[in-house]
């Protein structure tokens, strides 16, 4: 009889230990998402929702300091530098970016190749190399399309008129 009580008690003890470990893990993840971060791109839109098609409520610039209040997937809810809302986490750095010369803080910037790799796109050198290897392709229309800029308000109107309600952007 004693043995059956010990066996029955063991899973409950393991369950309690597992629950404590899970709570500690969740707590550390939530804590890690909070803190001061720096904007590491030239300009980044701050949006009302965590989506690339969310309404733009403001803009932050390279070096701006923000407080991360919450993370959701690849998005961070931030406050600072006169803006409040959601921005893609890839535009943030934990390192303090200082624009003044002669300061001791680390300056953080991605190279053109790093940005091209991160965006899975072309930089000017990669594009020139690709064009040289594909002389039979006419890039006129691609060049024109790259210059097209759709204002956020126009995009929002298009989505609304089409009955499109995008979910969380950037999430898989």
Given the structure, what is the number of helices? 5
Proportion of residues in extended strands:
15-25%
CATH class of the largest domain: Mainly Beta
Structural domain tally: 2
Helix-residue proportion:
25-40%
Fourth CATH level, the homologous superfamily of the largest domain:
SH3 Domains
CATH fold field value of the largest domain: SH3 type barrels
Please give the order of strands in the largest beta sheet: 6-5-4-1-7
Structural class: alpha+beta
Mean pLDDT over the full residue set: 74
Poorly predicted tracts of residues: 1-10, 22-32
Short description:
Helices cover 39% and strands 22% of the residues. It is of the alpha+beta class and 172 residues long. The protein folds into 2 domains: 1-32; 34-161, SH3 type barrels.
List keywords for this structure.
5 helices, 39% helix, two-stranded antiparallel ribbon, five-stranded antiparallel beta sheet, alpha+beta, SH3 type barrels, 172 residues
Structure description:
The chain has 172 residues and is an alpha+beta fold. The protein folds into two domains: 1-32; 34-161, SH3 Domains (SH3 type barrels, Roll), CATH 2.30.30. Helix content is 39%, strand content 22%. The protein has helices spanning 2-33, 112-119, 124-133, 140-146, 152-161, and strands spanning 35-39, 43-47, 56-61, 65-72, 75-80, 83-88, 92-93. The strands form two sheets. The chain has a five-stranded antiparallel β-sheet with strand order 6-5-4-1-7, with helices on one face. It is globular. The termini are far apart.
Give me the secondary-structure topology.
Layout: H1 2-33, E1 35-39, E2 43-47, E3 56-61, E4 65-72, E5 75-80, E6 83-88, E7 92-93, H2 112-119, H3 124-133, H4 140-146, H5 152-161
Antiparallel strand pairs: 1-4, 1-7, 2-3, 4-5, 5-6
């Amino acid at each position: 009889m004693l043995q059956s009580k010990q066996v029955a008690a063991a899973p409950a003890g393991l369950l309690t230990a597992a629950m404590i470990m899970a709570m500690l893990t969740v707590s550390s993840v939530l804590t890690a998402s909070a803190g001061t971060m720096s904007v590491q791109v030239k300009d980044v839109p701050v949006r009302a929702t965590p989506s690339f098609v969310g309404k733009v409520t403001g803009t932050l610039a390279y070096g701006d300091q923000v407080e991360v209040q919450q993370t959701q997937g690849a998005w961070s809810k931030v406050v600072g530098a006169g803006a409040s809302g959601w921005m893609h986490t890839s535009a943030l750095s934990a390192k303090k970016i200082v624009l003044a010369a002669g300061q001791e803080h680390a300056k953080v910037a991605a190279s053109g190749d790093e940005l091209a790799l991160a965006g899975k796109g072309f930089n000017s050198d990669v594009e020139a190399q690709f064009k040289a290897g594909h002389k039979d392709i006419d890039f006129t229309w691609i060049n024109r399309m790259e210059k097209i800029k759709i204002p956020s308000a126009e995009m929002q109107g298009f989505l609304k008129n089409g009955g499109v309600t995008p979910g969380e952007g950037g999430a898989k």
